Task: inverse folding
């Protein structure tokens, strides 16, 4: 008796009467293309001899489903570039301690992780180096930096003075249309606060502060404030994951807007400076996760 596992030399007719190569019961029929396998989305056409190799076809299809699923779950928000998205994700890993100080960051490994090319990864790393979260060292590559609480406090102190100056000038120089837009941003923040979405509020927060920088009517001050803000961006975004911080921030924004609308420059400066020092206190809890 022939071994049941041994393939006969003659072709085996399939259920449509057509000859096929030897196959196991688990191999798909040739008339059932890979796209008919349970796939979450369209698959790229299989090239060359892959169609003639059922087991290899399965492997390719499984990989394609994994790759497409990963791309759907890791993607930039609407209107966000991939490099800015990568910058936020890498910064989040550093702040939350998933990447410890001294960890080496490889461009290709990050590109593979986020299913992208090395170009947006390189851009993201360059911006992160400007924030101080990572260091680009000759012959050593890119490593995660050590950020101390004292260093972070000094950066926020500088930011508080810059933003206070912007708020004072905005109270003096904003047009009525500018004030209307600022009030609309305040109301938008109150609506987002109700959703309890820290990422959405972080995006709103950037727009709110940018409006005040612009309203100051001083291009040099605006550029300086934006530059320092970029270095603190990962920490400023992280604060909104602290319970209750979004509600407190929206209340502080309302105080700043009230002072600006009433053209009270001194109160606008005081309110904004106090707001920024509160941000510093809220954000400093993350410094211990990226320092040694």
Result:
């Amino acid at each position: 008796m022939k071994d049941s596992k041994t393939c006969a030399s003659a072709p085996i007719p399939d259920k449509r009467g057509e000859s096929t190569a030897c196959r196991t019961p688990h191999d798909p029929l040739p008339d059932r293309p890979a796209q008919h396998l349970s796939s979450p989305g369209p698959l790229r056409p299989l090239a060359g001899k892959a169609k003639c190799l059922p087991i290899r076809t399965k492997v390719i299809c499984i990989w394609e489903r994994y790759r497409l699923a990963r791309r759907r779950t890791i993607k930039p928000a609407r209107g966000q570039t991939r490099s800015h998205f990568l910058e936020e994700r890498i910064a989040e890993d550093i702040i939350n301690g998933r990447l410890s100080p001294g960890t080496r960051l490889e461009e290709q490994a990050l590109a593979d992780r986020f299913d992208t090319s090395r170009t947006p990864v390189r851009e993201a790393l360059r911006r992160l180096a400007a924030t101080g979260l990572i260091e680009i060292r000759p012959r050593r590559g890119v490593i995660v930096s050590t950020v101390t609480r004292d260093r972070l406090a000094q950066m926020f102190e500088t930011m508080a003075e810059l933003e206070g100056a912007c708020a004072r000038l905005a109270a003096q120089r904003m047009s009525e249309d500018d004030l209307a837009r600022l009030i609309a941003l305040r109301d938008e923040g109150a609506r987002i606060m109700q959703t309890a979405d820290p990422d959405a509020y972080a995006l709103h927060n950037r727009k709110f502060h940018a409006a005040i920088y612009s309203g100051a009517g001083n291009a040099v001050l605006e550029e300086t404030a934006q530059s320092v803000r970029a270095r603190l961006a990962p920490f400023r975004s992280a604060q909104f994951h602290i319970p209750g911080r979004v509600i407190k921030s929206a209340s502080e924004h309302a105080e700043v807007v009230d002072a600006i609308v009433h053209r009270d420059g001194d109160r606008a400066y005081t309110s904004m400076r106090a707001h920024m020092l509160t941000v510093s206190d809220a954000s400093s809890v993350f410094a211990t996760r990226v320092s040694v």
